[in-house]
Design goal:
Blueprint (H helix, E strand, L loop, with lengths): L2 H24 L5 H16 L8 H36 L7 E4 L5 H11 L11 H14 L4 E5 L4 E13 L4 E11 L8 H15 L4 E7 L3 H9 L3 E6 L3 E7 L5
Length: 254
């Protein structure tokens, strides 16, 4: 081997050392023991590099085989990880299929059960008598039928929202889209139904030319308060001891 060939081989071997070292550092899991063994061997080669100029070729061949083993093993573990992740994705529950549409008056009776289910554990902020609930739903519908939306699966109603877009906010002396109610049946909560209803209600308010949206939420309903915060509502005051006022600007908020 002429001297220039030795120099090029040495450079290539050093490059392989570096790549192999990085591969070993990145190896994890059950391959960890083999990783430590290979790392020790690599460090030993690197430490004695200056004395190996005359034996580059055999070491290079040996190390090439070692690197091949490392790469093959890492690829095998990577593919196995991909397969496991694919299986997890397949096993994940799918987003429930539902539609959002304006309620029909004859369906108000069905919403009584949803109302009670949604307020379970929060009865202090809700109507509890069946007649009062029925009258309240009728009042919501009469105020703005097109702003009373329901979420529906193939077989049942699972939630509703009511917004009056010509409401007068006495605090700020301006028109607002007042969200009077947002309820999702208990066993359908935390599945994106409430957010979809709220987004539909906000879109409806914007289409009606509203610049602001507002609502009242129970002071002790911390989960709902945080949820409204994430949607861009801000707390602006309290009233009647147990209610918190929240407002959201709709212009330039699409």
């Amino acid at each position: 081997m002429i001297e220039s060939d030795k120099g090029e081989s040495l450079k290539a071997w050093v490059a392989f050392c570096f790549v192999g070292y990085l591969l070993c550092l990145g190896s994890e899991g059950s391959y960890g023991q083999r990783r430590d063994e290979v790392r020790s061997e690599l460090e030993r080669y690197l430490h004695n590099l200056t004395s190996l100029k005359n034996t580059v070729s055999p070491i290079f061949a040996h190390f090439s085989g070692m690197c091949k083993t490392i790469v093959q093993t890492k690829i095998r573990y990577h593919l196995r990880g991909v397969a496991e992740m694919s299986q997890k994705i397949v096993d994940l529950p799918t987003q429930p299929a539902f539609v959002i549409r304006p309620v029909e008056r004859h369906e108000l009776e069905k919403l009584i059960e949803i109302y009670r289910s949604g307020y379970e554990g929060l009865e202090e902020y809700a109507e509890t008598d069946e007649k009062d609930i029925r009258d309240y739903l009728e009042w919501l519908y009469e105020g703005e039928p097109n702003g009373f939306l329901v979420a529906e699966t193939e077989s049942e109603l699972i939630g509703f929202i009511s917004v009056h877009t010509d409401w007068w906010d006495r605090r700020y002396q301006r028109r607002t889209a007042e969200f009077h109610e947002l309820v999702v049946k208990r066993d359908w909560q935390s599945k994106g139904i409430g957010k979809a209803l709220m987004m539909a209600g906000l879109d409806y308010a914007r289409a009606k030319g509203c610049e602001y949206a507002s609502l009242w939420v129970g002071e002790g309903n911390l989960k709902a308060r945080k949820w409204y915060h994430r949607l861009g509502f801000e707390e602006v005051g309290k009233s009647w001891g147990v209610w918190v006022r929240m407002v959201k600007k709709l212009i330039n908020d699409v």
